[in-house]
Give the backbone structure.
Amino acid sequence: MVKLKCYHCQSENLVRNGKTNNGKQRYLCNDCGKMSRDNPQSNSYSAEEREQILRAYEERSSLRGLTRTFGVARNTVSGWLRGKNSLMPHLEETLVMPSDAPILELDELWSFVLKKANKRWIWIALCRQTRQVVAFVIGDRSAATCQRLWEQIPAAFRQAHCFTDFWEAYQVVIPPEQHTAGGKESGETAHVERWNNTLRQRLARFVRKTLSFSKSDVMHEICLFLFLHRYNNELALSFD
């Protein structure tokens, strides 16, 4: 009989029961039936390690890729993402006002959840001067979703002139005096279209042909929101 207290019930009725993978003695409690270790240590990740793993996730690594690289479970990373999302302020707080009248470029980006039949269009409003994303929504490609995007644009940017493609939803929602539609050859939406490429390059779940797709709408939006926060904050630092 080993004179050691059970970690769970504080009983001393313990017997040796093999060793852990790292060579530590393992004990079985005859009272509660649970396992204990000699001198147990926390397996939690430090704040620096978490941030490093989340940064790697935003460089096109998949959740399974993080498991292979860092040994962290997929559910653990998903929990970190959910927790971090709950602490983030509104996207508006990351924005820097341009020195002259703001100009917005609007576009919609195709994505999907679980299977390609479940289309999720990402609508983006990007400030041409600062390159920051001022608003976004996820939904279908209807005028109703475009209206949601328009309502998400902060008041300081609401009077900006907007450049879009010829998708009819923009003509329904944006006031005519603030709206100019044009094709790609005009170059008026070049920055937001380039941003679409940045998103697909940085987050694997938004790549067109990929196995790293979102399994739920919740995680689809959380990952996009966290990426936008980091993207906008990094740009804001360049203006200091």
